[in-house]
Known about the structure:
Blueprint: E1 2-3, E2 13-14, E3 31-34, H1 42-50, E4 53-58, H2 62-68, E5 80-83, H3 141-152, H4 154-165, E6 170-174, H5 181-192, H6 197-205, H7 211-219, H8 222-228, H9 240-254, H10 257-262, H11 268-279
Parallel strand pairs: 3-6, 4-5, 4-6
Antiparallel strand pairs: 1-2, 2-3
Helix pairs in contact: 3-4, 3-9, 4-5, 4-11, 5-6, 6-9
Amino acid sequence: MQWLAFDSLVNARDVGGIPTVDGGRILPRRLIRSDNLQALTPDDIQRLRDLGVTDIVDLRSAFEVQAEGPGPLDHRAEFTIHRHSFFVEQVSVGAGAPGATGAAGDTGGIEASGANARDELPGDVLPWAGERPHTIQVEDGFASSYLSFLADRPESVLAALRAVAYADGAALVHCAAGKDRTGTTVALALMIAGADVDAVVEDYAASTERIDLILARLLARETYAENLSGRPASSHHTRPESMRAFLGYAEERFGGVEPMLGMIGWTPADTAQMRVKLRG
Length: 280
């Protein structure tokens, strides 16, 4: 894992170099993760080109995309943008605006054990929306959130992972902070590719190192300021135990990440392609 320097991004890193269980390594310039791309400078865009990025996987909700407005990569032919919200939402997107609406899909056997999915108010389709009811409840609240992505929006999770696996060049995955929705997607991709679980947890937890910078950046944006106001930085930390609880649920309930994803439509061909993408 390597931190990447950008003018506008504070939580960007290349997961290349992460060890695999068979003694190999994830290849560099295949999967990059970051916070949101709304303020990219011309130099930042050139940096993306230099890294070989061709595909952008944007996990923000339709509400976030609409509220933030067009980004600097919209309508640039050299980048393909894949937008897949992980939140249950019923948000009207204006004509010509990027993004999509969606409601909960088939959980494919990932069953709810807590509150049912519901239509969300605009404030609830932002990250960190307080006591959001989770479709799947485990002891760790963040792990509950990550598991609920799979139960509530399985089609989005699958599409995001396939966008990584089938990207022409490097795929960059981002949301707002680049730590929860992004962290879930990257962890799943790495596990499918056979990464060492301790290294996956370490990569997830690394976002805490940049949390003050992440929050300062988001608090400066009207879309997120009210939602974040008054919350301590510690409430946003990416704690190792959260990712271990998420991956532990997959192992204990389904026998691992791959069979868990198989319940919602992931295929052996998808796994083979992800391994080619991330390992060569």
